[in-house]
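Dear support,

I submitted the protein below through the web form. The confirmation email said the job was done, but the results page showed an empty box. After a refresh the structure appeared. I'm attaching both so you can tell me whether what I see now is the final result or a partial one.
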Amino acid sequence: MKEPLDPTRLDRLEEQTYLSRFDDGLLDLLIGLGILGFAVGVIVGEAMITILAPAFAPILWKSLQEKVTIPRLGYVRFSEERRTRERQGVLGIRLVLLAAVLLGAGAWFAFDRGGYTFPVSSRELGLAPVALIMAALMVVGAMAFGLGRAWYYAVLCLAAAAAVPLGLPAEYGLVATGTIMALAGLGMLVRFLRRYPAHPAGAQ
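What the results page shows now:
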């Protein structure tokens, strides 16, 4: 007589299967390159790089996963609870971005139009607020998607913002953050490709 499956074991198995989707390192690599491109664009004064570099990360991730990850791991339909958590994570990311836009717009109206003064100039702040927003996004990703390494990335973003009072512009801290993320993602991708070689066309 077969023993009934333990729901706890099933949940743990689903968790492991879900997280394996991110073992390819593609998300780390692309977000890292996006942050790196954004910061470099600010440093060299190229607005086009600053705008386009982060925008390509989510677009390329889905496409590359379909070409690299899914053919090696297959497609899995997760439980409704898992998909709900994922939707909540995406909503959380959107809310953080919306809050950042609203706070930025409010600050602009208050200090530029309203005549209020701020103790620190925008030139002195630099990209520190952006680094804080990125840290918040990393925290949401860690909590909603279970990506433990996102906590470390959040700390790197916070360090980039915290270094501003010490005289180090946040954009240079973000260059370091993006580089570390991209290299970590590249290392994970190489390991993933070695662990899961591509199946020959037509193989069962």
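Response: this is the final, complete result; the empty box was a page-load delay. The chain has a mean pLDDT of 77.
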